[in-house]
Amino acid sequence: MPNKVKTILVSQPEPKVENSPYFELSQKHKVKVDFRPFIHVEGVPAKEVRQQKIDISQYTAIILTSKNAVDHFFRVAEEMRYKVPEGLKYFCQSEAIAFYLQKYVVYRKRKIYVGQKDFADMSPLIKKYKDEKFLLPASDAQNPDAPQTLNNLKVDWTVGTFYRTVMSDLSDLADVYYDVLAFFSPTGIKSLFMNFPDFKQNETRIAVFGTSVQKEAEAHGLRVDIMAPSPEAPSMTMALDKYIAKVNKEK
Fewer CB within 10 Å of terminal CB in the chain, N or C? Predict the structure, then answer.
């Protein structure tokens, strides 16, 4: 039987909400949960965006796939001293992104078009406005679904790298041991091995969210002990809850 779980490191920023399921998990099982992002996002300076031959004043529609894309589009616009016109159209991949957009623009339904969840869900919306000139502000690790979908729609579109995903310096964790490490992106796994090339899993349990993270973990020779999402555990906290309940019960 595996050892009891007493400590968990979640490779993400600490939740800002008081009622986070991680805090509930910590109280329920009397386990210590720490948070530390293994990766972070850095903005690409406007000068570098210009070097990509991007003049944002030439576009009539912006496709936004994440909150980071929203932040960095408006940051670059400001750095370029470009006054974002009121008539600009925004195509948001999800409702959460559209809601976040209100940080920067006055919410007018006619200019903000919202998908369901996946990039492909925006196809009917983009098709309806196929004569627009689309800009896709993205990270250096772009989702392959986006170019494929836009090329299939035969629209005029350009992708720009507005921000990058960078591996964080974790050297201060060298002598710190956790029973469980929870990962949410393949880059998080890469960051672990960039920081600790000699990492040995031993008794550490690895929890992953998503099959791409699972593949990356296994490619690095890691044993995946906790997997989410699944029908019984659609979230990481549910998967951790189930696992801890099983291994921590008194023998």
Answer: C
